[in-house]
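Cross-posting from the modeling subforum.

Setting up a comparison between two proteins and wanted a second pair of eyes on the formatting. Protein 1 (sequence, then structure tokens):
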Amino acid sequence: MYLTLKELATLFPERQGIEENIFFHTVCDRADILQPKGLFVPLHNQSDELLKAIANGAVAAIWERGKNIPSYTPNHFPVFFTTDLAAAVRKLLQLYINNLNGETNNKMEITNFIFSNKKLLNKNNETYDIAGMLKKIAEVQTDSSERRE
């Protein structure tokens, strides 16, 4: 089961770009990784990240509200806005896990989550287990909120 643009619209009501349904084959935080039909989440804040992500197959992005979208971004390119990218990833993973709950088809096509941010990876840095990533994101958010207090 692929993650869809319509599902993202339920999580992130503030958005721009096309409204047609897109099936995301990948969700990635690195612009330099091939991400066919990808949803790009710029967790690294490097310049020209979005341009590289689009060149590598990204067809939409989750973007930090208030941060300027680069002028080269196509008008039809879907962009979903959030105040916290890490929290957005957590919500996205939880939605995907909930949608997968009960699916038993061994041959079903799934969205691949590719994250290189070590704070999001589980203990085995070579795997991208979404349940492990969800736990790590929750831990990172708890740690950062405790530091703010």
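Protein 2 (same layout):
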Amino acid sequence: MTIGERGELRAAEYLQNKGFYILERNYRTRRGEIDLICADDRYLVFVEVKTRSSTSFGMPCEAVTYGKQQKLILAARQWLQEHPTELQPRFDVVEILVSPNHTTCRMHHIPNAFEVV
């Protein structure tokens, strides 16, 4: 299992513990991919998970650039066309820093990390 796959697994467990239901993992379209799609009784959440073993190149959330956001938005629009819902959509980022030996991690959940304008 890669570091990214481990991060996505931990992020899914974290979100489930916060009361979210995981609807889909690694949803792919021609325009982009969404790591996790989850929901609670109010929100439909499109989640980008960024896992890193160091901050040498910045915090993991900094990798969710404007270009990446646009790809996530396009993929989310496609998912919403296929799965209409009354829930309020939002985009979250979960950043995970793991120790070099992968024994410990620090997770930071950023709800509503960016908006569609």
